[in-house]
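Continuing the series of single-chain predictions for the mutant panel. This is the parent chain; the variants come on the following pages.
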Amino acid sequence: MSIAGCATFEQVARLSLSDDSRTLRERPEGSAQRSSMGRPGILFLPIDGVDRFMLYEMLRAGELPGFAKLVGGDGKSFPHAHFDDSLIATMPSSTMPAWASVLTGVGPAYHGMAGNEFFERDTRTFTAPIPGTFHDAAPTLACFTSDEYCNHVLKAPTVYEQMRKRDEDVLIWVALHHMYAGADVLFVADRTVLAKAFEIKLRGMVEKLGENKASRFDFETLDKEVVDVVGDALNQKNVTLPDVLTVYLSGTDLYGHIADEGPETARRAYLREVLDPAIATLERDMQKLGLLDNRWVVITSDHGHTEVLKDDRHALATDGDDDPPRVLEARGFRVREFKQKVSKDADFQAVLAYQGATAYVYAADRSTCPLKGDVCDWKKPPRFEEDVLELANGFYQANEHGAGCAGMKGTLELVLARRPVAPPALPRAFEVYDGKRLVPIPEYLAAHPHKSYVELDARMRDLAVGPHGNRAGDVILIAANAERDNVADRYYFASPYRSWHGSPSRKDSEVPLIVAHPTRSTAEIRARAAKVLGNRPRQQRVTDLLLSLRYDD
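Parent structure:
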């Protein structure tokens, strides 16, 4: 993989992360210091990279006593908590689109955070809060600085902004989450700790750091420090305590990607040995202040993990002779350079953006830039047959026969494409390209079942059909990944890692949602959640749930 534009964690640490907290909103003079006034508070715990089965099994087996106590259980029974078994991740099942959906109440086609990285064709901007086609931790860190990178990418109001519209004086604290528009205070960890953790994950640097415990140390230091920073703030003298507190814990995911022992063993150990004690500390701090007496606790995650092989053969990266860019080049497309920023007169006809088990491909109308050196008009939609189908067929033939790129043979499950439209018309839904024509997803899956896929058609519509749906590209590739039982048959779009996600599979897509309150019964909480979530909910319904818990009593 190209590392153009790469920044070391020492360089990234020099970003403007100078303190462990940042005031985001000056409260108007004379406003109430906090606004609960009998309304229940909320403790929201977004935990990255934990699938439903793993978390629930460990809780019910008594392996996570800190978590259990927080949700009013003893490891055997949970009389004040509801464990939802229906929540499904956004597609792709990756960090940024998932958390943006959780925090806005709409899908990617409406909130605009189409992936961990994506191309905005109307401005020729490559947006990459978590880069996949190049290595640079700076964009990720910029989400937490005064740049507020991720906040500015969002095209829909956050749940915090929606709360404030109902309740101007609500006091909201957010710890380390990427998106926090509408909150009063953002808490971060030590800048060097934060930078180093994200840099290690982006580079997959476990082999350069020695033993696994040394590499895990950076991630556990980050999570412990986040909890400590929040605890210190809660225990300050004369502090006004928050109505809504969000504490984001990322280490389970970060370590799961690179751990030599594999994602299952690594994440289970991390939950037991790192997050559970941290949660127990947070619970004690809040309990002694009376902050859990009338407060909903909501725990969820963004995606699961699927084990993959860490080698160049299975990693569909950007710099090898057997990687996806070679397919584009074989079809005559000039490919955008793999870095966040290129010059305004850069010459490219196709763009790749990686999401783990999924990849987006963007095509220009090549009639606007036929000669090398021509700058394409990316505001104009591509032509269907000459540009979009040419790309789709290129990847289909490479996957089936190795045409144009022998190493791509057998690496893909699906090639999806759609007919372009010109704005302001909404982008169309994706369909499956079968080598001859586009087939609607339900029709294709009826004829070619994919046993592990969950609600692919509906989730793809959430991704693609809306005012910002063109950010998901013109062709979407879904790698042969979690659908394959044998790890040796799995592929992913990234440099070599031990684990990835982003697929439509149950393994990546079935996420936990635990709702608890110390004075409510499981049956009452279950009924209340079901009324808000509906049948087979996707992650955007979590916003509706948080608003309901806060305001519908």
